[in-house]
Amino acid sequence: MDPISYPELNQVLARLVSEIQQILDHDFVGLYLQGSFALGDYDQHSDVDFVVVMEDELLPHQVDALQAMHGRVYDLDSEWAKHLEGSYFPREVLRDQAQRGRELWYLDHGARSLVRSDHCNTLLVRWVVRERGVPLAGPPPATLVEPVSEARLKAEMYEVLTTWGQQILDDPAPYNNRFYQAFIVLNYCRMLHDLCRGYPGSKRAGAEWAKATLDPSWSDLIDGTWAGRPDPARQVREPADPEAFERTLRFVEYVMDQSQRYI
């Protein structure tokens, strides 16, 4: 297994796949990379987004074993082990788009144990897994995921862009740190770019598109976001630059307004 250009990450992924296969045994179907490592433009600061597919819902003893395993992997002598993020999908949940939004067992970025969350249970993740997913084990992902129509995908993109944006504007305090200030700007560039073209792309492609397409007055704000990506555990504890954060809130408003053009 050598899908990624970082040998140390490949070692972490090989360990992850082996341990999950041992725990799930005959219930294991496949493990796939999605996110930036599937869409391209990944780098040494990227999250490592994955999807595990099982035959059915996890049993309590499997959850217990996976909790212990993720703790062991987190403790590996590699920073990559702390950048894993992914969800466990029963096969039929992944196939059935009507089950979008249902909570799954989920490993958050920087976490060492699973929680219940709907974070990955989206049409966008299904599209990425089917169309660009990197198989680390298991059958071709297109055999497990039904096609997602452009209309349904754009509707979900618009829903996320506007709903999350309103949450940020209504209560900005939780996001007032260096990590989230950069994260919000890059994600709103990416989401508007994705909405414009009708399918997902990378943050870097979204940022470059935004600089070329949107009002040029936002270019310096977009350029400044790349400094907020390294060492997110430290950046999230440091307050954002007040001017940059205020402009970030105005950028969210601006992108929400621009999004009306693409629905």
List the helices and strands and how they pair.
Blueprint: H1 7-24, E1 28-34, H2 36-39, E2 48-54, H3 60-74, E3 84-90, H4 91-95, E4 104-107, E5 114-117, H5 123-132, E6 134-137, H6 150-170, H7 178-197, H8 203-213, H9 219-224, H10 232-235, H11 242-258
Parallel strand pairs: 2-3
Antiparallel strand pairs: 1-2, 1-6, 3-4, 4-5
Helix pairs in contact: 1-3, 6-7, 6-11, 7-8, 7-11
Strand content range: 5-15%
Report mean pLDDT, rounded to a whole number.
Answer: 94
Q: What is the CATH architecture descriptor of the largest domain?
A: 2-Layer Sandwich
Radius of gyration: 18 Å
Q: Summarize the amount of helix as a percent range.
A: 40-55%
Salient structural properties:
about 260 residues, alpha+beta, six-stranded mixed β-sheet, 11 helices, globular
Give a description of the structure.
This protein is of the alpha+beta class. It has two domains: 7-143, Beta Polymerase, domain 2, CATH 3.30.460; 150-262. Helices cover 50% and strands 13% of the residues. It has helices at residues 7-24, 36-39, 60-74, 91-95, 123-132, 150-170, 178-197, 203-213, 219-224, 232-235, 242-258; strands spanning 28-34, 48-54, 84-90, 104-107, 114-117, 134-137. A six-stranded mixed sheet has the order 5-4-3-2-1-6, sandwiched between helices.
